[in-house]
């Protein structure tokens, strides 16, 4: 079946995860903690190297939803109530300067010229995702944007993938799910999509190759991959 659509993860796929989120998280942990000891506890709970400002492979912050991130840190934050911390986190994440993995606009324009339907399925909240895409001047290229709070659930479940197909009139086999994590690959595969892993996140080629149909260096290689005929 001919490929008609590309569904992208956001962080680690369109945007460089370490460079975008590492410095921000170090500052955020300072804001919500009382001392260095507590910051180190929080960083460890999130799989984050505080001094180096990098995420470890398998970090809950990299792969999971805000709900799961809050589950990881709240036991170490006796002074915070969940609703207040969630509201603060959502407000702050919408302002995070995102570092694109490359110049996104020409790449996405090329996909649109091929008449491909484009979507984003992220475990981030939808509002920050839209804000960040708009700041990168690429929001208008996407026909569908969903976060874990959009009503379809988060990855590795398949709700966002199914919603993309339903709203855009696509069969799952006509879509490639593109992402940097096992959650992306598993959700795409289980939805019946072609799966394309990229190495701009924290997951290794060997790990992605276990579940992805193909592994590319980054999204810049997709155009050549499409020409070769997936």
Structural summary, described in words:
With 230 residues, the chain is α/β, with parallel strands linked by helices. The chain folds into two domains: 5-16 and 100-228, 3-Layer(aba) Sandwich (Rossmann fold), CATH 3.40.50.1000; 18-93, no CATH class. Helices cover 45% and strands 13% of the residues. It has eleven helices and eight strands. The chain has helices at residues 17-32, 36-46, 60-63, 66-73, 82-93, 104-113, 126-135, 159-168, 182-191, 205-209, 222-228, and strands at 5-8, 48-49, 54-55, 117-121, 144-146, 175-179, 194-198, 214-216. The strands form two sheets. The protein has a six-stranded parallel β-sheet, sandwiched between helices. α7 (126-135) links the parallel β4 and β5 (144-146). The model has no long low-confidence stretch (mean pLDDT 94).
Number of domains: 2
> SSE order in H/E notation?
EHHEEHHHHEHEHEHEHEH
- Rounded to an integer in angstroms, the radius of gyration calculated over CA atoms is 17 Å
The dominant shape is globular
CATH class descriptor of the largest domain: Alpha Beta
